[in-house]
Amino acid sequence: MSQVPEKPVRDLTGESIGLVETQTVRFDRPLELSCGHTLPFVDVAYETYGELDAGRTNAVLICHALSGDAHAAGFHAEQKPDNPRHKPGWWDVYVGPGKAIDTRHFFVICSNVLGGCKGTTGPGSINPDTGKPWGLDFPVVTIADMVAVQLRLIDHLGIEKLLCVLGGSMGGMQALEWAVRHPERMAGLLPVATTASLGAQPLAFDAVGRNAIISDPQFHNGHYAQHDTNPARGLAIARMLGHITYLSEQSMHRKFGRNLRHAEKPGWSFDSEFAVETYLDYQGEKFVDRFDANSYLYITRAMDYFDLGEGRGGLEKALKGTSARVLVISFSSDWLFPPSQNHRIAKALLHAGRPAGYLNIDEAYGHDSFLLPSPTHQQAIRGFLENLLRQERGLAEEPVDLDPRQPDEKRRMDLQRIAELIEPGASVLDLGCGDGRFLQYLRQRGAGRVVGVDIDPFRVVEAIENGIDAIRADLDQPLEIFPDRSFDYVLLSRTLQTVRHPSVVMREMLRIGHRGVVSFPNFGYWRNRHQISWTGRAPVSRNLPYTWCDTPNLHFLSLKDFEDWARDEGLKIERRIPLDFTSASEIRFLPNLRATDAIYVIGRG
Amino acid sequence: MSQVPEKPVRDLTGESIGLVETQTVRFDRPLELSCGHTLPFVDVAYETYGELDAGRTNAVLICHALSGDAHAAGFHAEQKPDNPRHKPGWWDVYVGPGKAIDTRHFFVICSNVLGGCKGTTGPGSINPDTGKPWGLDFPVVTIADMVAVQLRLIDHLGIEKLLCVLGGSMGGMQALEWAVRHPERMAGLLPVATTASLGAQPLAFDAVGRNAIISDPQFHNGHYAQHDTNPARGLAIARMLGHITYLSEQSMHRKFGRNLRHAEKPGWSFDSEFAVETYLDYQGEKFVDRFDANSYLYITRAMDYFDLGEGRGGLEKALKGTSARVLVISFSSDWLFPPSQNHRIAKALLHAGRPAGYLNIDEAYGHDSFLLPSPTHQQAIRGFLENLLRQERGLAEEPVDLDPRQPDEKRRMDLQRIAELIEPGASVLDLGCGDGRFLQYLRQRGAGRVVGVDIDPFRVVEAIENGIDAIRADLDQPLEIFPDRSFDYVLLSRTLQTVRHPSVVMREMLRIGHRGVVSFPNFGYWRNRHQISWTGRAPVSRNLPYTWCDTPNLHFLSLKDFEDWARDEGLKIERRIPLDFTSASEIRFLPNLRATDAIYVIGRG
């Protein structure tokens, strides 16, 4: 992912949703938990924003992370929007009129998780058998149990099918569990900065945090409420540690560096002197005021136990039954649930034959990036949701016109010819898809499933906005995300000569597709030969318009070079279409000399 | 750093040093500390291995990290080498006969740090004023104070000048402080996996660890010894957390994954179930048995306060007075003191006009890599130390013969001609230096300072073995490590056409050097033109021996292309040497047509 972004994307600030209220509903039916225990009833705290449409097609469920709650957006009455110390809900920058999750179009639901401490039943709730808080007598809950409670809420709200379930971090785990358990109840899935299971390092961080809580002498084996105290030191330490894992090293260093709090010189003590120490102290103290230590134990344990593929024959099999359209999003600087973990989810979906897009966003703020106003993130979420809604409502998209009659240097007559090669119903993967408009065009011409790959995150976002399942990936790396023979056609138009390892890309192409379609500028074109021979310079011509030192073209090949190579590789050239871009015609006679470009359809030999 | 290593390096296992003993010496002279307090006397525990030579030229001081001690190698009498539960010193894989730090050649010293708990004065020592352990009454110590104590030991051992001071992690900090404070007392400096100051993230981890210790009810404000207890839970938590930062995410996951300790199914509890939890518990418990909580506080605080450039006008100025030859080593997967932190040290040295090499080693084991048997690491340390010893003893190196009469395809007559261009005393930087033999050759011909750059770590190690200050770097990234105009000549032999961004590399070349010397294969050579014109294929010839798809050459240029470009860039071509490799002659007539290769000497216009 070495390419520099070409242009910034637009911001989606929108407006605040204003005053909101948390509601609570009690479900009296007993709830069986994964661990085998049964809760006699469950209380659920939730908020909703926007209006459910008549067809009930526009409901979006947001799932919150470890320390979140039902209050995702807007202000509570006791908060004042004009008081800078009063803060809106935890995802307010994403939810509201005109924002990424636009409450003018969507009915948004967010509920506090089972095991939490913000209104939904948890270890701090009263145990009906004893009349005292549950404490550690509360049964261990799982992500699946959280989803079971959310399902009751969705039923209660009269929603048959959610448009989308989305969430970051632990919210993403819930969204994934939804997709596996209740595929018929959702059209879209948007897991962000998450994982299908915790690896050893996050398990270890969780263990250390819980150790700090349990070791606190005020913990009283979880019954601290009965002792009228709480393990504040331990919980603060757990939160401090967690907080480090939510930020990136760079963002932390940029914010605090080695600054001292209020001195030029060291204090020669173990007090908090460095700004970062004071900040962590503050984060720890603030958290203790608003969060319950037992809930911290239960919720981190639920994350530890979460393993989407476990008991389901692995991740790929687990995801086979899903039917939602999926966009997986990760952040480059997230080291808690890093891009590789999110990539793994998208890969499992594609290998399970499910449609999925994957976008890794370059942001510097670590895991917390998903909570911050990242324009790329906002644009991707909006593009995905709006396309889902259009699709669910059966609305047609605007017709795409490729317009081959552009100015000379932009004329891409190869695309027009390639489109004519794709038969109706055929599935197409476009490597180097740009904004996805060509795939849109193919889809409108009757192609089956279409998927795009691009290295540039802004092109991937545009493709998502154009309703394409797009994957951010570097063609110079193996495209393991795609299974063997998963597409009828894999396209590589005017890209072969720009990759570092053309053989690798071509092999991947024919591993993934039944056929490959390649177009490239012809190095053997007579003007090029002429220039080399008579001027003794590397050619700069209409089909190779760059000087030797600034060219994105890393390889030069003629039709003959390509054909020699295809023969050596044992590939079958099914069709050759030499083109002259200057005269917009097909070349039959002396193509290696006269064609500016060529298209080849190749198959395995 | 995208290139794949070409060959593995050889292992340096050697033999165990056998039985060793820790000695203790008391220095009765009061020691003034950085914080202003004075210790009336200092005890120092140390070990030595090997023999000091008559000239006292072969003494190597090893500085240990946070939890290390004086026992770097061999076995104590109470340990038994044949008992697998008995372990040798902490760096035994590096120190011994035939090992990287070969005790047949070097006299090796290692002492426990001030503030430690393994024999050197620290917070657990008896405060002579009270007759009780110091506890938190012990004054805060710094890395500089640790070095002051080591200096006394070196004086005591009668060593005027150390051959080298080396160490990993906090050991590297001590080594750096040595180089700034006592440049006259050392010939070499080898900081490994370290930093010139902690950034916000490691400061934060330290703070959380100390918080756990101080919050432990058994801490008793540091006077736990007087209460006959110790803050074992807190220290264990600090150690667990530290341990996570010493490993890499990959290595941790490879080792433990999500394995459960002794069950197939979850236990639905908060007990340690996952293997990684049990492992951390074990690490925590083991540490409590062998380490003192107060020492943990003092030593981590010393690391926090360490800032080599502070009070010295910044890092570069601080290093200006050093005279040691330096090799800085980092590990790719180290996220505690990552490559960038180590690179920063090497950069400051080079910008201060000091000689320095920099090697980033690809190892998967995180920060702990420096303790593990990494063959690349072993080979680099050995190569560096042996060259230092040779240099200190004034021994000549074996003459290098470039041997231009190699088989055709390997004949590099450009090198011979380039060597003739370099006047005696001129400093030379070779970009793409390989094993450094060409620089060795130039040095033997009378060149002044010579430095090499290569992307391949194994080539960099070979260059170090050949006594060259070599830097691992990717030419496609800016070479910020080198200051402006710091070399007379910067060489780029047969490399320009392989880089992604030739303009960037050339600009860097002329920023760093007064002159650039470039050699490249001539694309305008008549055989190439002939092939393109008459066969319509990308040329495969003696000077461009690769096919279009497997070539490392990403750009093709002729003499004319290069000259056009130099003119556009405003560069001055001071000399042009067209060559014919096939006839081993210089070409004067029609060079763009007849030369297979060319050398250019260029300067800023």
Mind telling me which CATH architecture of the largest domain in chain A this is? 3-Layer(aba) Sandwich
Largest interface: A-B, 83 and 84 residues
What class do helices, strands and sheet pairing of chain A give? alpha/beta
Q: Low-confidence parts of chain A, pLDDT < 50 over ≥5 residues?
A: 1-11
Contiguous helical run count of chain A: 17
CATH superfamily of the largest domain in chain A: Alpha/Beta hydrolase fold, catalytic domain
Tell me what portion of residues of chain A adopts beta-strand conformation. Answer: 15-25%
How many E strands of chain A?
22
CATH class of the largest domain in chain A: Alpha Beta
- Specify the biggest β-sheet of chain A: 8 strands, mixed
The percent range for helix content of chain A is 25-40%
How many distinct domains of chain A? 2
How do the strands line up in the largest sheet of chain A? 1-4-8-5-11-12-13-14
